[in-house]
Amino acid sequence: MVTATFRFYEELNDFLAPERRRREFTVPCARAATTKHMIEALGVPHTEVELILLNGESVGFGTVLRESDRVAVYPKFEAFDITPLLRVRDQPLRDTRFVADTHLGSLARLLRMMGFDTLYDNGFADDEIERIAAAHSRIVLTRDRDLLKRKRITHGCYLHALRPQEQLREVCERLQLARSARPFTLCPQCNAALQPVAKAQVEHRLPPAVLELYDRFSICEVCARVYWEGDHWKRLCGGSG
User: Fold this and answer.
1) Cβ neighbours of residue 162 closer than 8 Å, sequence gap 6 or more
2) How high is the mean pLDDT of the chain?
3) Contact 140, 131 (CB under 8 A)
């Protein structure tokens, strides 16, 4: 048995017991315990971590802790590039392709409306989400901490907000998505690409008010749904930036 001193930074404190937040604390560690083992034992999913400093030096998740080690744990850095310091994974969490768990269908649709490739199926089991994330390098979106602790999931985002619009804002702010949004390019229902379509080709499918007010339309390549940039779309773009 060894002891090590930990300090977690920024939003990682939300996962800790109240008495351990925003302060150093010393805990016993099992012999041969790794940084990943202890970070998750303290309640923080490894996917939320981007940098670990052990006695001032950057290390990976597999580093074995020794007596009196001091461990500083940092969340995702979006304001500056820390690639030269990274040891916990091959690259920073900047890929913007997602897979959402079964409770986040509304968020998945909102992300698709912003143009972010987001896989979702209310039948996805945790094993399937893990497989998809590992095979296709997707960021897992979830409110399930245990899902993010799975070994094969390397990119993830734990959502604190409960309402879809607030969840969208949280994801956009944490991953700085505003500049890479491509609105009106993906189908909110099936995640397929939208293609521009002439008004004359779809006017027989449009409500009279839409026919009168709008001139730009898109159609989904897969489900053939027709979309236009109505008020709901303007509210989404205005509320997530």
Assistant:
1) none
2) 88
3) no
pTM above 0.70, yes or no: yes
The mean pLDDT of 134-160, rounded to a whole number, is 92
15 alpha carbon, distance to own chain's centre: 16
Write the DSSP string, the chain: -EEEEEEE-GGGGGGS-GGGTTS-EEEEE-TT-BHHHHHHHTT--GGG--EEEETTEEE-TTPBP-TTEEEEEE----SS--GGG--SSSS-S----EEE-TT-HHHHHHHHHTT--EE--TT--HHHHHHHHHHHTPEEEES-HHHHTSTT--SEEE----SHHHHHHHHHHHHT-GGG--TTSB-TTT-PBEEEE-HHHHGGGS-HHHHHH---EEEETTT--EEE--HHHHHHHHHH-
Burial class (CB in 10 A: 0-12, 13-18, 19+), 16: middle
Q: What's the number of CA atoms in the CB half-sphere (13 Å) around residue 202?
A: 21
Q: What residue type is assigned to position 52 of the chain?
A: I
pLDDT at 31: 87
End-to-end CA separation in angstroms for the chain = 49
CA 194 to chain centre: 23
CA neighbours closer than 13 Å in the CB half-sphere of residue 161? 17
Res 240: pLDDT: 52
98 touches 79 (CB < 8 A):
no
Q: What is the pLDDT of residues 49-66, one digit of tens each?
A: 989 999 999 999 999 999
